[in-house]
Amino acid sequence: MDDKKLDEIMKVPSIKDMVSEPPHYNNGSVECIDYIHQQLGSHYPGYLEGNVIKYVHRHKYKNENIEDLRKARWYLSKLIEYYEDL
Description:
Elements: H1 3-10, H2 15-20, H3 32-40, H4 44-58, H5 65-84
Helix pairs in contact: 4-5
């Protein structure tokens, strides 16, 4: 497959966009994950870890298993960022 064809395929809402920036999570002035962080305070890392566990667990039961693994990676990245920023 040539690069042009691949670029055209990737224009459809990309998996990466649906994982890291889903449009339904950013309706308003505050990103959903930031609001959750604000509301949960010191419980926020547990929320992130729980989502990593959830997405890793359920990926094998869905047709979109790669997307769930990417979501798990996204939450793990947020958890790492949280601890790096302490």
